Each structure stands twice: as C-alpha cells, then as structure tokens.
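The data layer described in this paper is built around a simple, fixed record for each protein. Because each token names a local backbone shape, the row as a whole describes the fold. We quote a single record here, exactly as it is kept in our systems:

***
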Amino acid sequence: MLRLLGNIIWFLLGGVVMGLAWYLAGLLAMITIIGLPWARACFVIGTFCFFPFGKEAVSRKAISGHDDIGTGALGLIGNIIWFVLVGIWLAVGHLMSAVACFITIIGIPFGIQHLKLALITLSPIGQTVIDSDRPRWVE
C-alpha cells in the first residue's frame, strides 16, 4: 500500500515529466536505425521513471550471470556516446528535480529516487528493471 501511495504521489508531482523526457529521448533515438538500442533502454527506464517505488534498475549481467551485447564492450561504448549526447541532459533534469524535492521534508524520498535515476543516466544500456523483492543473481 505504501509503494502504491508513493508511486501515485511521485507520478503526480514530477515523475510524469521525467518519464516523458525519457520517452522523448527514446523517440529521438528511434528516428535513426543506429539509435534503436538507446531507444529500447529509454523506454525501459522511462517506464521505470513513471512508477519507481518497489522496483530497481540492475545490470542484465547481474540477472543472467553472463555478458551480452549491452553489458560488454559495445555496451560501454554505447553508454559513453549516450551520456555525451543525451544522458547529461536527463541527469541535469533529475538533479534539478532532486533539489526541488529536497527543499521540503516530505519530498526527501522523492529526491533520493531522482538521484538514483540520475545515476542510471550514466549507463542505461545493459540495465533492466526488476521488482525490489526479486533476487538479483542467478544460481
């Protein structure tokens, strides 16, 4: 119940704006064929940005136990290109939103979530979103 309430408040007080920003970045990436890996990552993280409480972003390598194209060397190169072209702007948006949330006492949990999302803008390729209750490793 607390997650649901947190997600509703988050969505109404700014989560929708940053989620749409991620979706816009994804749409811009989809314009070119070469941008499709970034577009997929944008839509996954954008959906996460709409309702983040009770979920977390983790590396796909932590889930599967092995590298794939997004968690290996190509993913690193893709994340560097991503951050220079788009990621810095999303990070600034999340940081400004975090500062606005930290101004109020009740907004502190939301500010912390914006900081987590700002970190995700560093390397969204190779990330996936899971429920917080799900184990992060493969045995």
The two ends are 31 Å apart (CA to CA).
